[in-house]
Design a protein that fits this description.
The structure holds two protein chains of two kinds. Chain A is an all-beta fold. Chain A has no helices and nine strands. In chain A, the strands form two sheets. In chain A, strands 1, 3, 4, 7, 8 and 9 form a six-stranded mixed sheet that branches. In chain A, strands 2-6-5 form a three-stranded antiparallel sheet, with no helix packed on it. Chain B is mostly beta strands. Helix content of chain B is 3%, strand content 50%. Chain B has one helix and eleven strands. Chain B is globular and about 45 Å long. Classes of the chains: A mainly beta, B mainly beta. At the A-B interface, strand 7 and strand 8 of A face strand 5 and strand 10 of B.
Chain lengths: 110, 123
């Protein structure tokens, strides 16, 4: 079970859009539509932002958009706001009742 | 309001057994579709899923750690306990518990997390 690959950092100015990638294999991201994304502010618990690739829990702004192509999932944050500055983690089902996470991406709002 | 809180020792010695407790409120693990997982994050590394226990007492473990992990629940106390044997310095990490709510988000998303507890393995 190898971790999913995320860029260590990403950034954008307020109002801009930024996309964070999450690359796995056909055994995890590519094999299932069970990718989820989590936002974590410093010292806080992770928060579910996207599940099943593109679905948003109630209360998550529609500025957060999830997608997937092949073995790579993406989280796009549009209309960047200061409060979006946080760490973002992806996760995917990897089969055989196991789950795998990404290393995390630190999003900076410049 | 759903909350989870992890507790346990901050420091354990190599070869010792780690016992962590996840105490939760706002839901019951006897409710169909509710599950709790343990997830850890070594310093500077990716999150790692460790184990899951379901409302019907089904249990699942990370393949590579299966021989060292035991997960259990006490429904009356609203607690989930994770035991990890033969601790090693590489097990130093922040350990989180998180809920899975099958009815709302399926079984592949962790909808509510605890704040985590830091465990250091050192002699």
């Amino acid at each position: 079970q190898s971790a999913l690959t995320q860029p260590p950092s990403a950034s954008g100015s307020p109002g801009q859009s930024v996309t964070i990638s999450c690359t796995g294999t056909r055994s995890d991201v590519g094999g299932y539509n069970y990718v989820s994304w989590y936002q974590q502010h410093p010292g806080k618990a992770p928060k579910l932002m996207i599940y099943e690739v593109y679905k948003r829990p109630s209360g998550v702004p529609d500025r957060f958009y999830g997608s997937k192509s092949g073995n790579t999932a993406s989280l796009t944050v549009s209309g960047l706001q200061a409060e979006d500055e946080a760490d973002y983690y992806c996760s995917s089902y990897a089969g055989s009742n196991n789950w795998v996470f990404g290393g995390g991406t630190k999003l900076a709002v410049l | 309001q759903v909350t989870l809180r992890e507790s346990g020792p901050a420091l354990v010695k190599p070869t010792q057994t780690l016992t962590l407790t996840c105490t939760f409120s706002g839901f019951s693990l006897s409710t169909s579709g509710m599950c709790v997982s343990w997830i850890r994050q070594p310093p500077g590394k990716a999150l790692e899923w460790l184990a899951r226990i379901d409302w019907d007492d089904d249990k699942y473990y990370r393949t590579s750690l299966k021989t060292r992990l035991i997960i259990s629940k006490d429904t009356s106390k609203n607690q989930v306990v994770l035991t990890m044997t033969n601790m090693d310095p590489v097990d130093t990490a922040t350990y989180y518990c998180a809920r899975i709510n099958r009815e709302d988000y399926g079984v592949h998303a962790f909808d509510i997390w605890g704040q985590g507890t830091v465990v250091t393995v050192s002699s």
